[in-house]
Amino acid sequence: MSQHQDCRMYEAKYPEVDDVVMVQVKSIAEMGAYVSLLEYNGIEGMILLSELSRRRIRSITKLIKVGRQEPVMVLRVDKEKGYIDLSKRRVSQEDVQKCEERYNKSKLVHSIMRHVAETTGRDLEALYDNISWPLYKLYGHAFDAFKNMVSDEGDTIFKRLEEEKGAAATQLLSPEVREALLKNIKRRMTPQPLKIRADVEMTCFTYDGIEHIKAAIRAAEAVSVEECPVKMKLVAPPLYVLTTQTLDKNKGIEVLTTACEACQKSIESNRGKLVVKEAARAVSERDDRLLSEKMEQLEAANQEVDGDDESEEEEDVGMGDIDVEAGPAFVEV
């Protein structure tokens, strides 16, 4: 394995004026903040004091901190002297989102390219020159080209690179390099299903309330489509969660929102009530783990309260000592 290598992420050695780039704050001085441009191999730039905020600056350390990553706009570039003046205050929220999205894509591409260079002993900049930089031109971003390589083993991409760069690319793209590149792309970029969840509170105080809640749950789950199967389960009365797993986040949120509406319509038609506590959203493994822990704690607490001498009928219902005819109905199906 070769020693650690690094280089800029894009073919241009310097950003253009008005570009929004990602930087990391290195130090703070009287004139402003010294930063390194993360996408340009860490070359130095400065955010001028007057360009930190649109408002009056009372404390510079409250506006910017050493070590923090910030999207900033390029004001001036002196390529001969290596000076780059930057602005934080001129960056809009839309600029921030676009910059973060581009940087996250470029960072993943960079990580893959560095790993290929280190495992094959090739020069990182040579790999960029013959693979990534041409792909930025051909596909808008090398990330998008890499995504295509997951499905077709890279044959189309490798062919276009050889047409674009000629003999240099053919020589560099040895079987070893191709295998290392494909292996890293598939490991890092194969789509993983997202878990989408919505939290609701549902009650029904009428006679046969349990049956009405069961019907509402069935109505929610009936919204399922092949790519977004919907499940609804009890956390602890009156809290329920609706979940689905999908590769398409927007589609998952849309399906789960529709499921909540179907559930609400069903329960309200039987004089019940449903309140959405948290709308459909993508959840992390940590969120999922916290929910599981909460359910385990509540189950343990219920077992302690119920004791070991509950009737078989009560155990089947899972409702403790609730009188269905007299009290509110909650159910898990």
TrEMBL record:
Residues 18-89 form the S1 motif domain. It comes from the Eukaryota. Residues 305-324 have a biased composition (Acidic residues). Gene3D superfamilies: EIF_2_alpha, Nucleic acid-binding proteins, Translation initiation factor 2, subunit 1, domain 2. Residues 286-297 have a biased composition (Basic and acidic residues). GO terms for cellular component: eukaryotic 48S preinitiation complex; eukaryotic translation initiation factor 2 complex. The keyword Protein biosynthesis applies. InterPro entries: NA-bd_OB-fold, S1_domain, S1_IF2_alpha, TIF2_asu_C, TIF2_asu_middle_sf, TIF_2_asu. GO terms for molecular function: ribosome binding; RNA binding; translation initiation factor activity. Residues 286-333 are annotated as: Disordered. Keywords: Initiation factor, Phosphoprotein, Protein biosynthesis. Belongs to the eIF-2-alpha family. This is S1 motif domain-containing protein.
